[in-house]
Amino acid sequence: MLTAETFHPVYLSESDIATWRGLCASRPDFANPLLGPDFALAVGEVRADARVTVWRWPERVAGFLAYHRRPGGFARPIGAPLSDYHALVAAPGLDAEHALTVAGLAAFRFTGLIDPNHAFGAGIAAEHEAYLINLHGPAEAYLEALRAESPKRFKNYRRLDHKLDREVGELTIRAPDRDPEAFDKLIAWKRAQLVRTGAHDFLRPSWTQALMASLFNRDRGDFQGLMINLYAGERLVAGHFGIRAGGVYHPWIASTDPDLAAWSPGQVFLQRAIAAMPELGLTTYDLGPGHDHYKRPYALATRLIAEGTATSSGSRGLMAQASEQAWALAGANRAGLVGSFRRRLDVISAAELSLADRAAGLADALAAKARGGSSVAEAA
Question: What is the DSSP code string of 1-66?
Fold first, then answer.
């Protein structure tokens, strides 16, 4: 018989933490810092509504799901909208509908689901690509493969690299960069970009600011914050900030100096960051989903992630199903205005914790739409 325990991440036992980490290590699909217990624990430090459900068979742990529980038994992924990936971390055999029912949840809304066990079935409404840089050998061999795929594109990137080095200052990568002023500058550049594009400022809530600061200061152990920056002389040009677990790095913040846009510093940065991976002990640079035009040229590997809602078999689950069907009939699972609005609403609902802040986020979205800005917020 399947049973479930639900509690704040702080109450995870050492045994459960070890089992969870072991499940992540046993499957390449789960090998991302967002999917393990350490991320759930970090979010739990800044969110009282963080929850972990542990399902158990009589003889063993069945699986783990980290989330934020909202009224009515509705769940959103832990750390959303920063959780580009989320998963029911489990061995094969655990069905999402049954698991949610046992846990007393009505529904689990997901936007970046990894589901190697095919536990979510009918709950999946759409799929998207995420982009991976996987090194299986020397970094230079990987870069050469990129150049072979797009010779004109990378010839231009190399020209911009030389031009930036010559006209602004000698280019160097600093990694890990622990300079708090550089961190603050990356965050400020990112927030300014979100304003310019009309995307939702997911860095405005106090909990996301506290989480970023906490992870930036975490510099020991397998799980830690990592900032990689490109400098021209002593001038910060571009950088990434995110988290790593072992050899896997997942950046959230991709920022560039807006005054140097003519040199395409983001493109220059990524080539040099790839070259720096072996020295940092990185084998995977997980760029995540979205911003295809920026990420696709560098990713020789992709993975599919799912968007949708899993529901339980109870009456609350049926109500959630009816809501999802209404969204689907309106066109939320297709390209267009409704789908764009639904994704924007997901970001606002996940990031903002009060009704007033959610209302303000919607007002900002409508104002951005009126100005012709973006209607979808993305975290990287």
Answer: --EEEEE-GGG--HHHHHHHHHHHHH-GGG-STTSSHHHHHHHHTT-TTEEEEEEEETTEEEEEEE
Per the structure block, which two tokens stand in for 260? 């140097």
Q: How far is CA 40 from CA 66, 101, 228, in A?
A: 6, 22, 23
Q: Is 371 helix (H, G, I), strand (E, B) or coil?
A: helix
Rounded-to-integer distance, Cα 76 and Cα 81, Å: 9
Q: What is the 3-state secondary structure (H, E, C) of 265-292?
A: HHHHHHHHHHHHHHHHCCCEEEEEECCH
Q: Cβ contacts of residue 325 below 8 Å, gap of 6+?
A: none
Contact status, residue 361 vs residue 352, Cβ threshold 8 Å: yes
Give the integer Cα–Cα distance in Å for 24 and 89.
Answer: 7
Preceding amide of 28 cis, omega within 30: no
175 neighbors 280 (Cβ within 8 angstroms): yes
Task: Give the separation between CA 300 and CA 307, rounded to whole angstroms.
Answer: 23
- Helix ranges, the chain (H): 14-26, 37-44, 96-103, 139-149, 151-167, 180-197, 206-216, 265-280, 292-295, 315-330, 337-351, 355-371
**Contact (CB, 8 A) for 8 and 53:** no
Strand partners, 76: 68
Measured distance CA(165)–CA(254) in Å, rounded: 20
pTM attached to this predicted model? 0.92
Dihedral angle sign, alpha carbons of residues 233, 234, 237, 240: positive
pLDDT in tens, 239-261: 999 999 999 999 999 999 999 99
Question: Using an 8 Å Cβ cutoff, are 229 and 175 in contact?
Answer: yes
Nearest Cα to Cα of residue 333 among 100, 128, 119, 130: 128
pLDDT above 90 (res 334):
no
Q: Which of 378, 336, 359, 342 is nearest to 83 (CA)?
A: 378
pLDDT attached to residue 21: 97
Cβ-contact 86, 110 below 8 angstroms: yes
